Amino acid sequence: MSTRLIIIENINQVAEEQEKALAPLTDDLVLLESGLDSLCFAILVSRLEDDLGVDPFTASDEIVFPVTLGDFVSLYEAARIDAAA
Amino acid sequence: MRPPELRSLREALTREARPGGPDGSRMLHGLAQSVALPDLLDLSCLNGDVAGQRVLLVTGDQFLAGLALIAVDGLAEAVVLCPPDLAPEHLPAIAARAGATCLLTDRPRSALPGLDGLPLIDCAWPPVPAAREPEFERATEWLLLTSGTTGVPKLVRHDLAGLTGAIRPRPEGEPAPVWATFYDIRRYGGLQIFLRGVLGGGSLVLSGGCEPVSDHLARLGRHGVTHVSGTPSHWRRVLMSPARGLIDPGTIRLSGEIADQAVLDGLRETYPRAAIGHAYASTEAGVGFEVTDGLEGFPKAFVGRPGAVEMRVVDGSLRIRSRRTASGYVGSDELALADAEGFVDTGDMVEERTVDGATRYHFVGRRGGIINVGGLKVHPEEIEAVINRHARVRMSLVEARRNPITGAVVQASVVLDEAADLPAPDEIRREILAACRAELSPHKVPALLKIVPRLDVTAAGKLARRPA
User: Between A39, A43, A57, which is nearest B404 by CB?
Assistant: First the structure.
């Protein structure tokens, strides 16, 4: 499964568990307006670390905090490439 | 600035409020309301007399709590600052422990069950012109609630002198600061900023409950905030907001959680002109120290040096002695807050690390495995108890998992009994998590739950808990 699909699946799962209404998951969606709160993001990042094997927030030397869903997916895609290299 | 013998908030406002002076523009801003701080000397939002009372302050609105604190300090014998997330069922026990004699609230009595014996004083906006109260009759006890306990929170006693001990005078000629905090002012971290706002010669912008991050940042930007404080979790949300450019603070403070290098670096990149510091403070130990070199942890040399705040590391945990520590727990005399030498054991575990030849202490978690999820403390045992109620669970271990968003999340490992019959583990996982969601606050529900074949047990027969 692609990084993007795994992320989307996890986002849907967390939103359902936390009973959050999600905005449509487009690339330009601002994460803070997605319907997920801090705790949801925390859970998401921990689960993605298990599913994708990377935590780009901790691994990278240059920390870029993602603003949109597109940024978020790119961050993980880049981290997976780095980890595989 | 702060005169040497500051006795009450209103006394401080009186000294500053000179007709036509430069202080007329000092404001306290709430979400929807604003008031000039010096005007509060001749206004009242209370409909009763608090002199000599032990006041239980329970407001839904943070702005009203701020007005009430200014009104009661120096008159009341004590004020109990109930934070907004306090479970109402704890209120009667807290009232009894504090010896409360009145209830100061913006809520109807029906919303506060079990407090019928306490006379009620309303706290309401807008305030009305009132005869000026005496500036000082007695040193009011400030009673704060701890957040790191299961059941009824402990009450910690402070006084104004101790609470303001870390506030330094504004350097000569520096423009009046505009303070803001993402904290609630009824918690120690937020209270520090409230007191700086009231006493520090500037203005203060309070946070607004459920206000979206972008609206909050826009409001802070409109008021021209210069000094902003919050937990690392608060700041990570700011860094993830497209509205982060709407503020341009000169001073940024982080406290309440471990500040990691990522959030410090993110802030430095986003706010290049800001002086960024992370402070160590706790409800019990008061303001400990501040680190301003942009690196996580704190220099080893802080420990053992003489000064207003003395630090020790004993068995891996940080101990602090200073005038700013609380004077004791209230209503539970058997609990000693400090050791025989006056050091408060913070329960925060530190570890020595040497990077590039410089030795620093890094915070590694709480003793006893208490998990700090975005500033909210979680006892693993409370969650394990819920998990263990599932018929198929033999034992469980709940621990912290480091997390870049909230500092930590809750992770559970569960051993199932060996009954060979169904249901399958996946179904059991779902049932356990459903039980947790039904009984626990969201931050306590395990973010990750693993079924494991066994858990280690110590020689004493206890679950082997790794240091958090």
Answer: A57
Answer whether B3 touches A (CB < 8 Å).
no
pLDDT tens-place string over residues B391-439: 888 888 999 998 988 989 999 999 887 765 666 778 899 999 999 999 8
- Interface residues of chain A, partner chain B, Cβ below 8 Å: 17-18, 30-33, 38-39, 41-43, 45-47, 50, 55, 57-58, 63-67
Fold of A3-83: 1.10.1200
Out of A30, A32, A46, name the one closest to residue B409 (CB). A46
Q: Do B239 and A47 touch (CB under 8 A)?
A: no
- Helix, strand, coil percentages in chain B from 3-state DSSP, rounded to 5: 25, 30, 45
| Domains with residue ranges and CATH for chain B | 9-350 (3.40.50.12780), 370-451 (3.30.300.30)
Provide the shortest C-alpha distance from residue B322 to chain A (in Å).
Answer: 34
Alpha-carbon distance of B181 to B224, in angstroms, equals: 13
Greatest distance between any 2 Cα atoms in chain B: 83
**Which residue ranges make up each domain of chain A?**
3-83
Stated as kind and residue range, the H or E segment containing B235 is: helix B232-239
What pLDDT, in 10s, does the model give residues B70-112? 999 999 999 999 998 888 889 999 999 999 999 999 999 999 9
In B110-213, which ranges are E strands? Answer: 120-129, 141-145, 155-158, 178-181, 203-205
Does an H or E element contain B220, and which?
helix B213-222
Q: What is the mean pLDDT of chain B?
A: 88
pLDDT digit string, tens, across residues B296-324: 999 999 999 998 889 999 988 999 998 87
Q: Alpha-carbon distance B143 to B56, whole Å?
A: 9
Number of residues in chain A: 85
Q: How far is A62 from chain B (nearest CA, A)?
A: 8
Mean pLDDT by 10 residues, chain B (468 residues): 73 72 75 93 94 96 96 97 89 95 95 93 94 92 81 89 85 89 91 92 90 94 96 86 95 87 90 95 84 94 91 92 81 72 88 90 82 86 86 87 91 82 78 92 92 74 60
